[in-house]
Write a structure and sequence with these properties.
Helices cover 40% and strands 23% of the residues. The chain has 321 residues and is of the alpha+beta class. A hairpin with a 6-residue loop joins β6 and β7. Bound molecules: (3R)-3-hydroxy-3-methyl-5-(phosphonooxy)pentanoic acid. (3R)-3-hydroxy-3-methyl-5-(phosphonooxy)pentanoic acid (PMV) binds next to α4 and α5.
């Protein structure tokens, strides 16, 4: 029986998390060292319309119709069948595997959505553009994040470094010279929706101060775009440190994340910051490739339960599809 697969990478935010929810720009890159994979095959012995989803990494093994109506997969299939104008799907079995850490700011939810949409479209022989796919993945993100900026689904769908502003077409970034990063997982799970809601509460209580923080992050993000273009890693690292200091001010860091950031800097990183929603999840450090081993060990000794090295090669961002 033929099977059809879809794949999507993880992602990490380099600059601008949280501020991006308040209309400032952010920069995110795909992390192809981890990914989500979905495989769809026909289930001819099952009743028409039955979609069986088997996703051991998220402890799911059941029929779509039995999931709660507000479940992410219900939103996904609702939007996808509407787009396909196919109210009834043939019976199918979907197997999903992901190596992306869950609830850790690496876009695992968005990557699973994109992988599933790609696999189901391949199975149905339905052509879908990345722009349409991204729109469906965004609807799914909204169903479980509340007010997402859309950065996760966008970077995961297009799999390129992006300069992103909410509600606007994204800009693919130019990368002037090779950049090497280490991602360190604090091991503490953190739900984006909780952190984003807390920031919103604080912003409502002190709007002037928080607007100033967000604007300052926006300025750093724009400077970072220029430094990535010219390939100045020293300056880029400094901007990451400044962004981390502002994230501390808006209360989204944690002692574990600060400890990892300090450990990376102490071992020679050019810059380091938390990444994603915060309170837990990952931090990211910009490094010289030759220092990778030393910095990975420092992070592990300081409590990181996983480290991932990822690189950006020099490239011209080019046009959006
Ligand atoms: O999904 P995470 O943890 O990478 O967080 C997303 C980044 C935020 O700016 C905090 C939220 C958003 O929707 O952009």
């Amino acid at each position: 029986m033929p099977s059809f697969s879809g794949k999507a990478p993880g992602k990490i935010i380099l600059f601008g998390e949280h501020a991006v929810v308040y209309d400032q720009p952010a920069i995110a890159i795909p992390v192809s060292e981890v990914n989500a994979n979905a495989v769809v095959s026909a289930a001819p012995l099952r009743p028409e319309g039955e979609v069986w989803i088997e996703a051991p990494d998220i402890h799911l093994n059941q029929v779509l119709a039995d999931l709660p109506v507000d479940h992410a997969f219900q939103t996904l299939f609702g939007a996808l069948t509407k787009r396909m104008k196919a109210p009834r799907l043939p019976a199918m079995h979907i197997t999903i595997h992901s190596t992306i850490p869950i609830a850790a700011g690496m876009g695992s939810g968005a990557a699973i959505s994109v992988a599933v949409i790609r696999a189901v479209c391949a199975f149905m022989n339905f052509q879908i553009s990345d722009t349409e796919l991204n729109e469906i993945a965004f609807q799914v993100e909204k169903s479980y994040h509340g007010t997402p900026s859309g950065i996760d689904n966008t970077v995961v769908t297009f799999e390129k470094p992006i300069f992103f502003t909410r509600g606007a077409p994204f800009e693919p970034l130019d990368i002037g010279s090779e950049l090497c990063f280490i991602i360190g997982d604090s091991g503490a799970p953190s739900r984006t929706i909780d952190v984003v809601s807390d920031v919103r509460r604080r912003w409502s209580a002190q709007p002037e101060i928080y607007e100033l923080y967000f604007q300052s992050i926006g300025i750093l993000t724009r400077k970072a775009r220029e430094q990535m273009k010219v390939g100045n890693s020293l300056k880029l690292g400094g901007l990451m440190n400044e962004n981390h200091a502002l994230l501390q001010k808006i209360n989204v860091s944690s002692p574990e994340l600060d400890f990892l950031v300090d450990a990376a800097l102490g071992a020679g990183a050019l810059g380091a910051k938390l990444s994603g929603a915060g309170w837990g999840g990952n931090m990211i450090a910009l490094i010289n490739r030759r220092d990778a081993e030393k910095i990975c060990s420092a992070l592990t000794r300081s409590g990181a339960n996983r480290t991932i090295i990822t690189e950006l090669k020099p490239s011209y961002g080019g046009m959006i599809e």
